[in-house]
Amino acid sequence: MRLLLMFSALVLAACSREPASEDKQLPRASIGLRYLRAKDDAGFARAEEPRALAFPVDHGSHPWFRTEWWYFTGNLKSTDGDRYGFELTFFRVGLRPPEVDAPGQSAWRRDQIWMAHLAVTDATQQRFVARERIARDALDLAGAAAAPARVWVKGWSAARGDESAQERWRLSAGDGDVGLQLNLTTDDAPVPNGEAGLDRKGPEPGNASYYYSLPRLATTGVLKIDGREVAVEGNAWMDREWSTSALADDVAGWDWFGLRLSDGGSLMFYRLRRRDGTADAFSGGMRVDGAGRRRRLTRDDVELTPIAYWASPVSGTRYPIAWQLKIPSEQLALELRPYVPNQELSLSVRYWEGAVSGSGTKRDGGAMTADGYLELAGY
Amino acid sequence: MMRLLNRASLRFYLRHPWQLGLAVAGISLGVGVFVGVQLANDSAARAFDLSAALVRGSTSHRLVPIGADLDEKVYRNIVIDRDVATAAPVIEANVGIAAHPGLRIPLLGVDPTQERNLRSFAAFTPGRGNGDLTRLMTEPGTVLVPAALAAELGAEPGSELTLQIAGRETVVHVLGIVGSLTTDVQAEPPLLADIATAQELLGMPGRITRIDLRLTESEAAALAAATPDGTILVREGAQRAAFDELATAFRTNLTALGLLALVVGTFLIYSTMSFAILQRRATLGVLRAIGVTPRELLSSVLVEALVLAAVATGLGLLLGRGLAAGLVDLVLRTIGDIYFSSVVEAARPSPWIYVQGAALGTAATLIAALKPALDAARASPAAVLRRATLERQAKRGAVVAAWLALPLLAVSGAILAYGPKNLVAAFGSLFAVLAAGALLTPLATVALMAMLDRLLGRFLGLPAVIAVRGVGASLSRTGMATAALAVAIATVNGVGLMIGSFRTSLSSWLETTLTADLYVTADPTTPLAADSDVLAMLMEVPGVAGVSVARALVVQSSVGEIAVRAFRPGARGFGLTIVSGPADAALAALAQGRGVAASERLMFARHLSVGDELTLPSPSGPQRLPIVGAYRDFNTGNYAIVMALERYRASWNDLTITGLGVDLRGGADAAAVEAAVRGLLGPKAAVRIRSSSGIEELSLQVFDRTFQITEVLRLLAAVVAFLGVLSALLAIELDRGREIGVLRAIGFAPRDLATSVLTQTGLLGLAAGLVALPLGTALAALLVHVINRRSFGWSMEFAPTFGPLGAGLALAIGAALLAGVYPSWRASRVVLGTALREE
Amino acid sequence: MTTPAWIEVREVSKAYGAQPVLDHASLAIERGARVAVVGRSGSGKSTLLRLIGGLEPADAGSVRVGGADLGAYSEAERAAWRRRDLGFVFQFFNLLPTLTVAENVELPLALNAVVAKEARRRSLALLQELGLGACADRFPEEISGGEQQRVAIARAVVHEPQLVLADEPTGNLDIETAGQVLALLRHTCERRGTTLVIATHSADVAAQATRVIGIRGGRIEERAS
User: Fold this and answer.
1) pTM
2) Residues with Cβ within 8 Å of residue B566, at least 6 apart in sequence
């Protein structure tokens, strides 16, 4: 549920060197939140009712909605057993709905702005590097295609190999001493979150997104960090979400968990954090067990307790980077810890998104392990 | 022991408050002027650096077109194919504002999404009109307006602004005001628009002006090795080299003037300290007699100087701070004229300047006090030096000093001949000449007085002789003051002569250069398409005798960015003053397109000589063009070359023009011709039409404004010198107290004495003024032939006139007479009894 | 006193700050007299001379010379009077260092608008008379103290004033030279009928006077001559 990492605000944030003092009082991601709550959505479609997700078409762009993203994260290992993590994300924001016609003569007069984030984590060296690219969709500098699905921002891209049912993605991004070239495949079908893909984030109708995930993509390829290239393999998670407005006014941020469990299943859960620190009623998630059975999770299905914090020397922000996660109905208990404490992306939008792993117990008292990504926003 | 000595010093100054005051004033003024100039300088430099940096941001390079502009696909090529992440497309053109005819401001079209890592326009800072960025990108015809302009036009978010672009009037909507940054710099960015809007407004879809890049050295090398066709990679800042060098030279000149004030101030300190020692020579003799060691006397005087320096330097820093407030506007305006830039507000200068000023002031004081201190230490314990002995020593000193001037002059000449050909060396030479002049002054004064004694004594009688002899006889007191006055007046003369020569040269250059009667100019970013039909029709306009055609553009040449003026001359030729040898041959070669003429500024700055080749990129490949001659160019803009229009068209395939020169027949109605020209070019053509006399007038106005600060500094130097003379005269008159008493006793009336004192001070002024004549002329020659040349690359005719020299002489005598007013009043008021009882 | 008084000091008081020097002092001197004023240092001798010479004003009382009230004169008138009728000899000679001996002597003549040539002639003649002919073109610092004082006397009498005031004229000279200078001063004045007032604390000097007065406690008292 990365939706809320919204960046229509990126136009603001991306273009300014320093936030003005009035904005310094708020965490940066809040600037994004402000946009997500924007009421001036005239002309944009809203996620109001469930719809049938169609693949591979829905892998492409939905410009009638204000915001959209393609989110790839993964937990990988080198042949030496060193652990790595990666994030490659493409965000799209519509400056206006596509039907507004103001053609002009300029190729630059376009409606979409794209932003991509690339981050690589090296658990052994305790290194984390994050980069950013931004472009408007002019001159094919950035954009999305549907058949076969492809998104790109300047030289970075995520592309589906063909239009077959089998998910095969190729990720390619690099910036100097950091980069990745990865192949992702799975035979699984995408998992629609929420109510058949409609994921409500607030009481107001339309404060929702369309949201699906591919929790377990077998991944091989090469990562580059600090100029070192490493052959890696492991699993990746793909999240897709689009919406126009989603957040209620009293939500300050969220903690998102995307975990692959040792039972062969997965767990996605987001806790919407209200300003008073409590979990919002619309917090929720999806549990897929080893047999592929899905179960929607609501706020009260999951107990979350932070067990370690880390303060960013850059932003001064204090993030809860390690958690105790319990699902009492399953008697599942996990303790999650990050590969590296500092996985803060201090870019146009500032947030913490990092590779984590965990271990604990399940219903039969047996051991359960997990790996995946944790996203902390609005701190 | 030291405590007692110091107490004695303190009481001495308390008893002679005016002496204390003058010593303090000397250092304070010197330090004040120096610090003031430096502060103003630094503040202006920072303001310009910062405003340039603001527009430039952290851009390291620019990819610029060889022709007029770039295909926007080049940007895609750079970003995608070459994977350069930090690259921003830019469109820049000057536009007119309908409500302000004649005002042209830059319109900068950018892609706001690409600015984060390059620039930090206040416009993109959240806070002021922040929500407008989405609208800026999506709504055609929207702009952000610089605050200063907004205030001038009364524009505010939501209002409309009518721009004049390429002859059309276009209404744009003001989305927001480009406010200030959070730093203390108030820089005014240009009118900002989204790049799409800029393309649409300027009618250049698919084109951009340049690409701003931030590259590492290796990335830059890789890109430079294979730039996209029709482009070259330029290091950021290189294109401002001509401006920066000019502004730096200007600031160096100001610094030198500030230093000069400090030097004159040092003279003042020296003369005050010397006199303070002289006055106490009896006391010092006694102290020596009772066993005070020379070392103790030396340190006592140095401590005295140090305390003086501390107090006076402190005051000087305050004074400098106040002065800077006034000077900085002048400096900014002058540099603004050099840059052709909008006025920016001053930045906060470096606090180090205060430290620098304090250190210099203290050092100057100690140096000035060193000789008096040594004199004090040498005070004979046996007997008080007799005044006569002292004066004899002073006369011998004057001779020695005059001899010392010779090696100094030799050094000065050697620096010019063999030293590095830079500005610092030139100023070194200039200061050596000034010092030599100062050293020669006492002897010259003695000689002058001896001559006057012989000449005037016969006619004016003894009172005059007393005055004349008094000058020579008080050399120990007057020598330094006269020297200080001479140096100051020489500076005033020299700068005056230089400005006069410059103005004369500029005026005659303008006359040569302005070959036509009416000038029609279009902005180089929006040239006119004037085909031969238009020109033929122009020739048909009644009253038009001939037409010259010019295309001005800026290119990245092998010697950096230069302004090219491709010119098809009218009846009166190219209007170039060739300074590099035979003009006819050079002009013929130029006309035939066999090469280019280069401005002497370019020649000087890039160490070029006739015959060297310049390589200019052109759409049909690099053009190697030999320099056929150097011409005088007083423009402060870019380094420039001139070539024949046909030569330009042959390689650039560009038939547009940016300028027309119209020759009028005798008796033609200029206004009617102007109207006809406007009619031919279309009523709203973005051109400016000016008469050659109007241009001349404007140029001279700018010139006068440029030298305003120099005038102010001249005045300050004169004030410092005036104080020097005042201090010396007071010293003399105090010393003459008894003599005045005697004169009164034998029947001199108070008025006679006042006259005598005024005569004496007038003579001092005369001596200084006379010395300043040749010294000032030498200075002017140095300024004209060396300093200006090295600073600005301008050569000019050295045309000394008596005007400034006469004014300098009058100033010297006037200052001296003015300085004599108080001493003469004092002399006439002297209480006789007291004066006579003083032994 | 039957001869009418030429110099008339009447009830004159003078103080420097809080220090009274003369206190209602009165004195009359007849024309052509040679008067010695004696007294201890600081007794007011010099002050009395400066009052008579109009060099400074009295705090109270009047000073008349030749019937004219000096106090009623303007500063310019007093200067004109001094230039014409007064010669002054100082203890420290006070020759102008920047003028030659002859020029120093010419100075009063120049002030009285005597043409340069005539002034030169007269100054040379007088210097010759005083035995200083050889020194005429030297500067004061180049001759001895005795010679300097003789030049000072020449300067004091060259314009033939009616009154010569001498303040300790021998105070800075050795006894022998002092005698010579004093004799010269006396003869010069005698021959011209010039009134001479000498302030001194030397008995030898006083002995040359026709009249000796003393100052004590700010009052003037006659002494036996």
Assistant:
1) 0.63
2) B550, B551, B552, B553, B642, B643, B644, B645, B647, B648, B649, B652
Q: Give dist(CA A232, CA A181) in Å, integer.
A: 10
Q: What is the pLDDT of residues B525-567, one digit of tens each?
A: 667 776 677 788 888 888 888 888 888 888 878 787 788 889 9
A292 touches A285 (CB < 8 A): no
In chain A, residues 126-145 whose CB comes closer than 8 Å to chain B: 133-136, 138-141
Pair type for strands B61-65 and B210-213: antiparallel
- CA gap B256, B427 in Å, rounded: 7
- Contact check, Cβ <8 Å, A95/B182: no
Q: Which one of B469, B474, B743, B746 would you mutate to disrupt binding with C, by most C Cβ within 10 Å of its Cβ?
A: B746
Cβ–Cβ under 8 Å, residues B537 and B666: no
Distance of CA C160 to the CA centre of its chain: 12
C neighbours by CB contacts (3+ pairs under 8 Å): B
The stretch B54-73 carries a mean pLDDT of: 78
> Of the candidates B462, B739, B751, which has its C-beta nearest C106's C-beta?
B462
For the stretch B796-835, pLDDT in tens is 778 788 887 888 888 888 878 887 887 778 777 766 555 5
Residue A357 phi/psi, 5-degree rounding, is -140, 160
- In this structure, are residues C169 and C201 in contact, taking their beta carbons and an 8 Å threshold? no
Nearest CA in chain B to A114: B113
Q: In whole angstroms, give the CA distance from residue B792 to residue B250.
A: 8
Q: What share of chain B is helix, strand, coil (3-state, %, to 5)?
A: 60, 15, 25
DSSP letters, B690-718, are: EEHHHHHHHHHHHHHHHTHHHHHHHHHHH
User: Can you tell me the distance from the alpha carbon of A83 to that of B805, in angstroms, rounded to the nearest whole number?
Assistant: 85
Distance CA C103, CA B461 (A): 10
* End-to-end CA gap in chain A: 16
Dihedral of CA C55/C58/C64/C70: which sign?
positive
ipTM: 0.87
Mean pLDDT of B125-145: 69
Check A16 against B196: CB less than 8 A apart: no
Instruction: Specify the DSSP class assigned to residue A245.
Output: B
Give the CA angle between residues C186, C189, C193 to the nearest 5°.
135
- Residue B536 phi, psi dihedral angles, 5° rounding: -65, -40
Name subunits touching A (3+ CB pairs < 8 A).
B
B522 CB-contact burial (10 Å; exposed 0-12 / middle 13-18 / buried 19+) = buried
Mark yes or no for CB contact B749/C47 under 8 Å: no
State pLDDT tens for residues C115-131: 878 888 998 988 888 88
Sort residue A226 into left (φ over 0), alpha (ψ -120 to 50) or beta: left
Judging contact as 3 or more Cβ pairs under 8 Å, the answer for C and A is no
pLDDT for residue A5? 37
Residue B548, phi-psi category: left (phi > 0), alpha (psi -120 to 50), beta (remainder) = beta
**Which of B114, B128, B200 lies at the smallest CB-CB distance from A106?**
B200
Cα-Cα-Cα-Cα dihedral sign, residues B706, B709, B710, B712 = positive
Condensed to tens digits (0 to 9), the pLDDT of residues C6-65 reads: 888 888 888 877 788 888 888 888 888 888 888 877 788 888 888 888 877 888 888 888
Touching check for A98 and chain B: CB below 8 Å?
no
φ/ψ region of B57 (left if φ > 0, alpha if ψ in -120 to 50, else beta) reads: left
What DSSP character marks residue A302? -
3-state secondary structure of A236: strand
Specify burial of residue B642 (Cβ count, 10 A radius: 0-12, 13-18, 19+): buried
Residues from chain B that touch A22, judged by Cβ atoms under 8 A, are 126-127
Average pLDDT, chain B: 78
Query: Tell me, what's the pLDDT at B29?
Result: 82
